[in-house]
Structures are given as C-alpha cells and as structure tokens.
Amino acid sequence: MDLEMIIINIINYSGEARSLSMEAMQYGKKGDFEKARHNLNEANKNISKSHKSQTELIQSEARGDKQEVSLLLIHAQDHLMNAITIRDMAKEFIDLYEIISEEKGDINA
C-alpha cells in the first residue's frame, strides 16, 4: 500500500473512532449505557485499524524505507492520538454517568 493510502486510512479510522466515542458519551449522558458501550467497542475496532496502518509505516521505516515527514502524516498522527484520548475519556465519562445513575436513579438534569 502506498504512503498516501496508509495516511488516509489512519485519518479515516481515527476520525470515525473519535466520532463514535463522542456519540458514546452522549448515549451515556442520556443513560443508554448499552448503546454507549457498543459505540466504545466500535471505536476500539477503528482505533485498532488505524493503529495497524500506523504500524505498517513503523515497520517500513524499521526495514530502512525512510519516509519523508509530511504535514499530512503529522495530521494523521494527530488524529490517531486525539481518537485514543477521546476514547479513553469517553470510557471514564460513561463509567461516571453509570455510577451517578445507580446512586441517584436519574442522570438527566
């Protein structure tokens, strides 16, 4: 796979993971923990696909195939790191919403 396609895959899968994680938080806020956890699982799948593409680049460089660092590559890395951070935060928020829901019986204010 050529460099541009790998970069686009990283951006695509990471962007989808971020969107799924944000949506998961909204489900959690509304108390729909089943949908929230489903979205987190889907986000994890997309992050794994993105990470696989990133690993291809790392392995290529380890074999001696140096890639020129481009703004697009940096952008892709930024997308992946943001997706991972948002996913991790979404999990924490959903856990908190669930605790609040169990303690108070209603999280919708």
UniProtKB/TrEMBL annotation:
<dbReference type="GO" id="GO:0016740">
    <property type="term" value="F:transferase activity"/>
</dbReference>
<feature type="binding site">
    <location>
        <position position="78"/>
    </location>
    <ligand>
        <name>Mg(2+)</name>
    </ligand>
</feature>
<feature type="active site" description="Tele-phosphohistidine intermediate">
    <location>
        <position position="75"/>
    </location>
</feature>
<dbReference type="InterPro" id="IPR003188">
    <property type="entry name" value="PTS_IIA_lac/cel"/>
</dbReference>
<keyword id="KW-0813">Transport</keyword>
<protein>
    <submittedName>
        <fullName>PTS lactose/cellobiose transporter subunit IIA</fullName>
    </submittedName>
</protein>
<keyword id="KW-0808">Transferase</keyword>
<feature type="modified residue" description="Phosphohistidine; by HPr">
    <location>
        <position position="75"/>
    </location>
</feature>
<keyword id="KW-0460">Magnesium</keyword>
<dbReference type="Pfam" id="PF02255">
    <property type="entry name" value="PTS_IIA"/>
</dbReference>
<dbReference type="GO" id="GO:0009401">
    <property type="term" value="P:phosphoenolpyruvate-dependent sugar phosphotransferase system"/>
</dbReference>
<dbReference type="InterPro" id="IPR036542">
    <property type="entry name" value="PTS_IIA_lac/cel_sf"/>
</dbReference>
<keyword id="KW-0762">Sugar transport</keyword>
<dbReference type="GO" id="GO:0046872">
    <property type="term" value="F:metal ion binding"/>
</dbReference>
<keyword id="KW-0598">Phosphotransferase system</keyword>
<keyword id="KW-0479">Metal-binding</keyword>
